Structures are given as C-alpha cells and as structure tokens.
GH16 domain-containing protein (Acrobeloides nanus), 338 residues
Amino acid sequence: MKSLLIALFFLNGALAQQCSYYPDSDISISPINYEPGGMDDCCKICEYTPGCGAFTWSGYNGGTCWLKNITGPLIYAPKNIVGILNKNVIPSPLPSINKCTMQSNTDIPGNDMINIPNSQASDCCNLCYLTQGCKAYTWSSVNNGTCWLKSGTTTSNNNGIIAGILTPATISWTLRETYDSTNFYSKFDFYTDGDPTHGYVDFVNQSVAQQKGLIAVNSNGTIYMGADHTNKATGRGRKSVRLSSKAAYNGGLFIHDLVHMPVGPGTWPAYWFIGPDWPNNGEADIIEGIGGNTKNAVTLHTADGCTMRKEYQQLFTGTFADGKNPGVPSTDCFIQDW
C-alpha cells in the first residue's frame, strides 16, 4: 500500500509540472488574450486556451496572465515571469536572458552603428545582442522611439536619453537527445504522401525502404539513406525516403554529422525544420543541396505576404526576398545565406 501511495504522489507531481518558468523575462509579442491570476493559474489557463504556447505573468492589477502564441525569443523584463508549456514539446536549454545595465538621462556620444525605430527602450538590449560588434545602445523618443546601437560604452549626461550597456549572456548546453544507429529510424515517421514540391518522386514507407535498400545501418554504425539508383523510375516517380521526427522542439543546438551527401541531376538532399502548419508556421532549411549546386542553401521561409523593415535587414548577412526584390522572384518571404 505504501508503494502505491508513493507512486501516486510522484504521478501527481509530474502532472502538475506543465510549464517551465523563466524569471525576469518577457516574450516581445502582443498577447492573444489576458486573464487575471497567479503564476500557476497562468499555466493552466494557457494549457486550455487554443493557440497558447506560453505566457508572461506580471503584477499588473494584482497579477495578470498575458497569453502568447509563440515561445520566444525571451527579452529581459524585471519582475515579469515567462512560462512555456511543456506539453508535446521536448524542452531545449535556453541561454540566459541577455541583460543590459540601463541608465536614465545618459548618452553614449558617437560610436554609432545603426539606428532602428522601436517604441520601447527595453527592446534595444536584444537588438544590440543580435548585432555583431554592438556593446551598448541609447534610446530616445525621436520618431516615437529609436534604438541607437553603439560600438563603444563611454557615457555622458543627457536628459531624456536612456543608455544600456550589454552584459552578454553565458550560454551553456545540456545533451538532451541523441539520434544514432541504436535508435535512428524508430525516432522518425516515414512520409508517404505526394511530394508538396511536385518532384518526380515516390516516397515509400519503412518496410519498402528496407526491402529495396534505401535505408540501412552500416557495420561501422553510420546511417544510410538514399534513393533508388538502379531502376528506371515509373509511376509516381523515383523511390526515395522522406522522414519527419516524432519529437517536436522549440529551440536548441542541433549537431548533424554527415559523411556524404549526394549531388547531381535529380538529387535533393535536405535537412529542414518546419512548423506544425506548413508553410504558415515557417520553415528553416539547415541543409539543402539541389541538383548540381556547389553551395549549401541555408534558408528561412515564411508564408506569403510577410514584410520586414529595411532597418532589420541590416542585422543579418543573408539576402531577404519577398517577391518584390529585383531579380529575386519569390512567392513567400525568405532569408537566404549561401
């Protein structure tokens, strides 16, 4: 009887822990809804609210749950607490929140890198962290709010200006999951529907793939995946494999060790991350080598109709395209770095 009570105790404890909490942080996006409540109330409210993936709790009106439909990125927000639902998601270690030491009525003369319109001074800290060479920023009310990113940190007095000096976060990682020869194919579902990109290909299930030698575990422990390269393609197309992981992730550091990738006409090796409602929740192409391309295409896609302010396009090295850029036709928005 005692062992049964202990088992029930641990079971109830596991069920109660539905959210992971991150103090002094916020998710910089408008809420889908808000409800009064304590921090633990927020987790339950979010769990039963369609579309909610996380929340920010603040002390507003004695305690308010601000429900969010995305789980990041997190920004520094003193006294607020972010909660992220654990349900159906393997949590990945998040870096410590980027913090800036903020000073009122303070300026950092010169050292200008770029200025970005932003109505909230607190957002400047994350923009500085994401910009190579940025060490500090100032925020002023010019044009309804502007972040001035700086390469130096020497301050002076200036009424009405807010300065922030970046304290970079220390990132540490914990190994959560390994895909290797002992478990690889059991961690994936085999996609067998028609090719959404309209290629001449017949994606087969696991048993057919094994029978035809399209998948294998080699004697040295390496994983083999390939297309049928011995028979003439007929019907739906050349037999091949497309796998989707059974697990979902909300971020992390993913290390992929490749020995060989095919190249040449008709090949399309790829390693993608996609949202649950493709393409509306986006797509991140980590590895993509089409046909005879000699360079990897690293691409971030969105659904149609997205826009990006030109100021933000200066914060990354890739090429932004939204179907309006001369010479870069597109039906969606994407950032390509190759």
